[in-house]
Design goal:
With 378 residues, the protein is of the alpha/beta class. The chain contains 14 helices and 15 strands. The protein folds into two domains: 195 residues, Rossmann fold (3-Layer(aba) Sandwich), CATH 3.40.50; 169 residues, Glycogen Phosphorylase B (Rossmann fold, 3-Layer(aba) Sandwich), CATH 3.40.50.2000.
């Protein structure tokens, strides 16, 4: 597994890589991670090979590999059967190079809508329309090369194809959710006490706090609901480069007392946070899947999600959650609060078809597909 981002930074692609790795290991496979080096190497449960890297200043916590170092020597020693990249930046280029040299099938999971992120994090000042087109030029060139590109959802595959991306093969394989870890049984009525939210109706937001995640939409909705829903609170789990901007936004809206920025929640607390909340709110237009959606649903917690990209593939209006547009978030929150209890069972059942076991079986088929394509290419 090649990864563009890695611990101590935790984002959606890191969580997805770990879910995929767990599923493969449970089925008897061995997983080794190749990651950008960091001054704070974490204690980690599987082998990691680090490559020299520098921090990307425009996106704190993200590191860019500057040298392949002993990458090829390491991979030859490990005799990898598949090279699977979770990212489209420096590690995509390196993993593809390694795959070609070693004649190993190459699979790339498309986690990030880089055409949207680049406008926020470009290292040089360039007009949005120009730099977005440059990103698409890069994506068209990069994604034609792996044996298989994995799209986590159908809308992502469609969007790539509509923008002129031609791939050897594109298989749809969502990242699976651990339905034993995320379950309604993790509900704990005392959990919210630690955040001063005892007796309140709590909405939950989980994720890295960056500009493109659009938490401002939820904050504005909380402000508009303040007079009619005095017991409603928002618990924000996660951190990131935009945390100070979002805290200032809450202050400017006069809702600092209605929003708790909890920071990064330990892994053992996250299932309880989902199960003990009224609903998960996800306002991002950026999601290629949104694993947090499936984690919430598996926990019996309905989802209030932006009607954009992958989210409507997993959230079905009135059944396991409610959908909204940029200006209708508050209405969707209220619909979900009114019907939340009746949606619990549907939420759980809708998540089960995306269990780690089911999605890992689909991933194994994608690996077989990649190997077949490489063998037929000579």
């Amino acid at each position: 597994m090649f990864v563009d981002s890695f611990h101590p930074t935790v984002d959606g692609s890191v969580v997805a890589m770990e879910s995929v790795s767990k599923g493969l290991e449970d089925r008897g496979h061995e997983v080794i991670v190749v990651a950008p080096d960091t001054p704070n190497r974490p204690s980690y449960g599987r082998a990691v090979h680090y490559l020299p890297a520098l921090e990307f200043r425009n996106y704190p916590g993200y590191r860019v590999v500057i040298s392949p170092s002993d990458m090829l020597e390491f991979l030859r020693k490990e005799k990898a059967d598949i090279i699977h990249c979770h990212g489209i930046a420096s590690m995509a280029v390196l993993s593809l190079t390694a795959a070609r040299v070693l004649k190993t099938p190459h699979v790339l999971t498309f986690h990030t809508m880089a055409n949207e992120a680049v406008r926020h994090y470009s290292p040089i000042p360039v007009r949005d329309d120009l730099i977005i087109e440059l990103v698409w030029v890069y994506l068209r060139n990069m994604l034609k090369r792996p044996e298989v590109v994995i799209a986590p959802s159908t809308p992502v595959k469609t969007e790539l194809e509509e923008n002129g991306v031609v791939m050897k093969a594109c298989d749809i394989v969502p990242t699976g959710v651990d339905c034993e870890r995320f379950t309604p049984e993790k509900y704990d009525k005392r959990f919210m006490d630690r955040f001063g939210l005892s007796g309140k109706r709590v909405l939950l937001h989980v994720g890295r706090l960056s500009i493109e995640k659009r938490l401002d939409i939820v904050l504005e909705s909380m402000a508009s609901l303040a007079s009619t829903e005095p017991d409603l609170r928002l618990l924000v789990a996660g951190t990131g480069p935009a945390i100070d901007a979002y805290k200032e936004k809450a202050r400017s809206l006069g809702i600092s007392d209605r929003v708790v920025f909890a920071g990064f929640l330990p892994d053992e607390d996250l299932p309880t946070a989902y199960a003990s909340s009224e609903a998960l709110v996800i306002p991002s237009t950026f999601e290629t899947q949104g694993l947090v959606v499936l984690e919430a649903l598996a926990s019996g917690t309905p989802v209030v999600g932006m009607r954009c990209r992958a989210i409507p593939e997993f959230v079905h209006e009135g059944k396991n959650g409610c959908l909204f547009d940029a200006d209708t978030c508050a209405d969707a929150i209220m619909r979900c609060l009114v019907r939340g209890d009746s949606m619990m069972m549907s939420a759980v059942s809708s998540a089960r078809e995306y269990s780690i076991e089911a999605c890992t079986a689909r991933l194994e088929k994608a690996y077989e597909h990649a190997a077949d394509i490489l063998s037929r290419s000579g």
